[in-house]
Design goal:
Order of helices and strands of chain B: EHEHEHEHEHEHEEEEHEHEHHHH
Helix content of chain B: 25-40%
CATH architecture of chain A: 3-Layer(aba) Sandwich
Radius of gyration of chain A: 18 Å
Number of strands of chain A: 13
CATH superfamily of chain A: Glutaconate Coenzyme A-transferase
CATH topology of the largest domain in chain B: Glutaconate Coenzyme A-transferase
Number of helices of chain B: 12
Helix content of chain A: 10-25%
Shape of chain A: globular
Structural class of chain A: alpha/beta
Oligomer: heterodimer
Distance between the termini of chain A: 16 Å
Strand content of chain A: 15-25%
Radius of gyration of chain B: 19 Å
CATH class of chain A: Alpha Beta
Distance between the termini of chain B: 42 Å
Largest sheet of chain A: 7 strands, mixed
């Protein structure tokens, strides 16, 4: 099995570890890989996690990707948008998101590219990033690690706050884990600088340095550990039986 | 008591330069037939408050928006709203960009008749940089912590789409998420609802129905009967969003005339015909995530 493990599967397995020490909180994985990863975390490291059906209900088992018979979902609670807000203000949530830009402070941007008053590209708007970043832990998944995503200086519009303003969050602000197509990172380097924890197969330290717009620390250049066979079965047969994950990297 | 109005009647309550709030969320349960009515009117220079979807894009495409107060604009499955993007990139609109929760706080503050509500949300971000009018407040208690004083967002008019209403304005939102429609209604001088069904009070289902009544009828000035009035956005549990239509709408940002010729400047009835009729719309399955 191991020779056919895909990059998407490696990322899902690694991303799932973000939630392993969280206890009973709401896990929100936004986008394909983060969502499968949150499901994997619930089925392996942390069964206490709460998770939604992608809409309004909390369900007991992670919803698989693709079309499903949602009437079979075991609903256990309610999570309207208003409840999501209430929940996140209380801090009992850990989201994994994919910002358009990140900088060395861990600040994130999903609002605009370019000058704010004359945007080159208008994106979504800040959405819930200001509130998420100041109230609870977040992790990041980036499928295209480059100097356009990991930018030099500061992001064009700070939507999610960063370590340089950590005291404004009463010390809550944390980027737990960063998973990219090149490797695994966190912000636990000196002065909360981003540091490399492991490299995916066939990626070099140089690849990472060249594709990151700011200085990072190299905590380890070991190769990212592979998903276990149990994880692979859960990813392939339970969480994403249709293989939608493979569209992320065109595998 | 009879609050039933036509789409056109609602325009009598709306002037240029007004501040309007639009209920729903992204591509979900937007009062689109009322939005189209505004697009077809002479009203302009609106300040619009919304958890934005095609309501914002369509108003931008018709040059109705002076200022947008928002947290995001998105068509859900099509993440970026092409018409809003274009308006923003062409510098056609002013913006007050807020965290989703700050926006809720602004509406809640107006709903509670308070000048502001305190929050930490926004600290450390460029939401503060780009909204220099936001002020701060210090806790009078031992902690002495400073907060952003999120100001009340008062609305002249709120426009909402609901599943059911009687002619007195007893409304029901049956879909599982009422979003923030109740706060829009409370923050507004006048609220107008478009409703999938116009029923007798008795037909609203008594106690079982009343749990879906998210705000009081005293907040409702007018009720417009508008079957499939949320199209092309979804209206759970009756119909999902019309992805094909949203795509056509999104693609029309480059040249809006074809879309406008096909779907705009029509009565609601004629609009529904142009998109396949209520029978086709109610066949659109609810989205699954």
């Amino acid at each position: 099995m191991s020779d056919s493990i895909s990059l998407a599967e490696i990322c899902i397995s690694q991303a799932s570890k973000a939630w392993q020490d969280d206890g009973e909180i709401l896990a929100t994985g936004i986008g394909l890989i983060p969502r499968i990863a949150a499901g994997l975390a619930k089925l392996t490291h942390n069964p206490d996690l709460m998770m939604t059906d992608g809409e309004t209900y909390l369900i007991s088992e992670p919803a698989p990707m693709g079309k499903r018979d949602s009437s079979a979902d075991q609903v256990e609670g309610y999570m309207s948008y208003s409840r999501v807000f209430e929940n996140l203000w209380g801090g009992k949530r850990h989201a994994m998101v994919t910002p358009t830009q990140i900088d060395s402070f861990g600040q994130t941007n999903i609002s605009v590219i370019g000058n704010y008053d004359s945007p080159k590209i208008q994106l979504l708007g800040v959405r819930g990033f200001p509130g998420n970043s100041i109230n609870h832990k977040n992790s990041i998944f980036i499928p295209n690690h480059s100097i356009k995503t990991f930018v030099e200086g500061e992001v064009d519009m700070v939507s999610g706050m960063g370590y340089k303003n950590k005291e404004l969050s009463n010390g809550i602000f944390e980027i737990k884990r960063v998973i990219t197509n090149l490797g695994i990172f966190d912000f636990n380097g000196k002065n909360n600088c981003m540091q490399l924890l492991s490299l995916h197969p066939n990626v070099s330290v140089d690849d990472v340095i060249t594709n990151t717009g700011f200085e990072i620390a190299i905590q380890s250049d070991s190769i990212t550990s592979m998903p276990s066979s149990e994880e692979l079965v859960l990813i392939r047969e339970v969480l994403d039986p249709q293989g939608i994950r493979n569209t992320i990297f065109g595998e | 008591m009879n609050k039933v109005l036509t789409h056109k009647d609602v325009l009598d309550h709306l002037q240029s330069n007004a501040t309007i709030g639009i209920g729903g969320w992204g591509a979900r349960r937007k009062p689109m037939s009322l939005v189209r009515e505004i697009c077809q009117s002479d009203i302009k220079d609106l300040t619009v408050v919304s958890y934005g979807g095609p309501d914002i894009g369509l108003l931008c495409a018709h040059k109705k928006v002076k200022k947008l107060i928002f947290g995001f604009v998105s068509l859900d499955l099509i993440p970026l709203e092409a018409h809003f993007r274009q308006a923003r990139q062409n510098k056609e609109i002013e913006v007050m960009e807020l965290d989703e929760g700050m926006l809720q706080w602004g509406l809640r503050s107006a709903a509670m008749n308070l000048p502001f509500l305190p929050t930490r949300v926004g600290f450390g971000t460029d939401v503060l940089t780009h909204n220099p009018e936001l002020k701060f407040v210090k806790s009078p208690y031992k902690d002495k912590e400073s907060f952003i004083a999120m100001p009340a967002i008062k609305l002249d008019i709120a426009l909402l789409h609901v599943n059911k209403s009687d002619e007195k304005g007893n409304t029901q939102i049956i879909g599982p998420d009422p979003f923030f429609d109740d706060l829009f209604a409370r923050a507004a001088e006048k609220t107008f609802v478009s409703s999938e069904e116009l029923l007798s009070t008795q037909e609203l289902g008594g106690k079982d129905g009343a749990i879906f009544n998210r705000f009081e009828r005293s907040l409702v000035t007018g009720v417009v009967h508008s079957p499939c009035g949320a199209h092309p956005t979804s209206c759970s549990p009756s119909y999902g969003f019309d992805i094909r239509h949203l795509k056509e709408y999104s693609d029309s940002a480059k040249s809006f005339n074809d879309y406008a010729d096909k779907y705009m400047n029509k009565t609601h009835q004629d609009y529904l015909e142009s998109v396949g009729g209520t029978e086709e719309i109610t066949k659109i399955p609810l989205p699954q995530f």
